[in-house]
Amino acid sequence: MLEKQSVVIAGGGSTYTAGIVMMLIENQEKFPLRKLTFYDNDEQRQKIVADACEVIVRERAPEIEFSATTDPEKAFTDVDFVMAHIRVGGLSMREKDEKIPLKYGVVGQETCGPGGVAYAMRSIPGVIELIDYMEKYSPKAWMLNYSNPASIVAEATRVLRPDAKIINICDMPVAIKKSIADIMGLKHENEIVERYYGLNHFGWWTEMTDRQGNDLLPKLKEHVAKWGYSAAGDELNNPLLEEASWMDTFQKAKDIYAVDPETIPNTYLKYYLFPDYVVAHSNPDYTRANEVMDHREKNVFAECKRIAENGTAKDTIIEAGEHAEFVVQLAGALAYNTYERMLLIVPNNGAILNIDPKAMVEVPCIVSKRGYEPLAMGEIPQFQKGMIEQQVSVEKLVVQAYLEKSYQKLWQALTLSKTVPSASVAKEILDDLIAVNKEYWPELV
Ligand code: NAD
Ligand code: G6P
Ligand code: MN
Could you give the ipTM of this predicted complex? Predict the structure, then answer.
């Protein structure tokens, strides 16, 4: 019998929470729960999701003690795992992160370029606050954080809370591997054994085999060169599709791959390698934040309200979030010592030999009760080394700017971003971002 766990989901009102709950319930054999708590700082938003999840838990796993609260002491006491996915400033600030750079012809994206920098300046204090609650009320707990921008948040936690039991994670490699599994005719992405190096939303695969050790790359490369990560013949670029922008991203992997056919790229590299294309294909009046607000947020919340009103979720369309599956896998590895091999965002310490040992990198790690142990990826080629070092510097400058309240360093961070053409454009964007982030950022001097 596995020991039962107590989990708090921080960001209970997230559009992903209901899917995570479904996933947790489906995985009771692998990762049994005794307690599930929601925590959020927006009581009303969280209530919409919590009222529905209460019904779901009652119907499907009544043995789990479920509650929702905005009180940190209640939320973080007697907890084994904190699953954190907060969005400080909400989707309305995401919209500003995306639209302001676009005004200047620069990539407007949630985690890449100036948008990611702006989001980081809001996220850092929010995530640090969660760590402090966890350390105060449940010092033995682990935090699994996927609040974005995970890369800069990870650097901030490395600097500000170096001893905290936090692991930063991302589902993009998992999502890409899902497509690759489809392309290669594998049942599940867990059948892929990988070697990968980089930063979060900024990395490359060097090896992929199946569990029997067969090399997947020759056939995969042929496919990616033609179709990116889309299935052959997928209908692409239809602006009426809810996920139109994601379909474009999966297709664009073909052009990223062409830049370095030795490796298989993360989709997010499109923002750094093809910023001109991205800007030309963005609508400055309707960005991904609008897509999410008009679709995912509306649909999830409408369904949650319907469940709460009907008092049953028997016929619900909410599905176990794919994005949650690897979180359960990670928590299970830490709790039950499975020695699972997973991509995590961790201090480099030589895992990538020829870059800063103090960078936060995304590499395969072995996960057990001991925590995570990164695998050595060795030396990386000049092209990737150059890109990574530039981006690491951006991320470190953001964290330094946050700590020192330094306008100068934040300007330097934006200037150094590969997505920004000049120091003057960086300054114009920065001044606009400061104006709308007054409520969230420290006052810069
Ligand atoms: P959302 O706005 O729907 O939900 C976020 C929730 O966090 C809201 O209910 C909000 O009230 C709450 N919140 C904000 N600040 C808080 C604070 N300081 N303390 C407690 N709660 C707070 O956002 P979403 O679209 O569901 O995304 C949630 C987060 O997950 C985002 O950061 C997103 O970028 C991230 N995400 C990460 C990955 C990954 O790969 N790492 C994947 C998907 C989503
Ligand atoms: C992927 C990334 C996340 C990001 C999300 C955005 O899952 O790994 O880091 O937050 O995409 O998705 P959205 O649907 O909100 O644009
Ligand atoms: Mn991510």
Answer: 0.98
